[in-house]
Amino acid sequence: MAQLPNTHRPGPLERLSPREREILPLVAAGKDNREIGQLLFISEKTAKNYVTSIRKKLELKNRTQIALFALKEGIIKLEDL
């Protein structure tokens, strides 16, 4: 019997690296690239690159959409902001 091809499509969060999943709630909480860099001991430019990568992988247009995505997915809660 022939095997069916694997048709599993990764969910949105599965597309993100562990570091991107770490940065996502910080963006959603309103942290800018400098603050993210300071919190995670990375450069502001590296933080910016991660945010851009998150935005592209999730097919979002801006940081506001990242925050809304995080709220919708339960990554952050409104009362945590």
Q: Decide which structural class fits the backbone.
A: mainly alpha
> What's the mean pLDDT score?
91
Number of strands: 0
Strand-residue fraction? under 5%
The major β-sheet equals:
none
Describe the structure in your own words:
This protein is mainly α and 81 residues long. Helix content is 53%, strand content 0%. It has 4 helices and no strands. It has helices at 18-28, 33-40, 44-57, 63-72. Helix 1 (18-28) packs across helix 3. The protein is globular. The mean pLDDT is 91.
Jot down its keywords.
81 residues, 4 helices, 53% helix, globular, single chain, mainly alpha
Write the layout of secondary structure elements.
Layout: H1 18-28, H2 33-40, H3 44-57, H4 63-72
Helix pairs in contact: 1-3, 1-4, 2-3
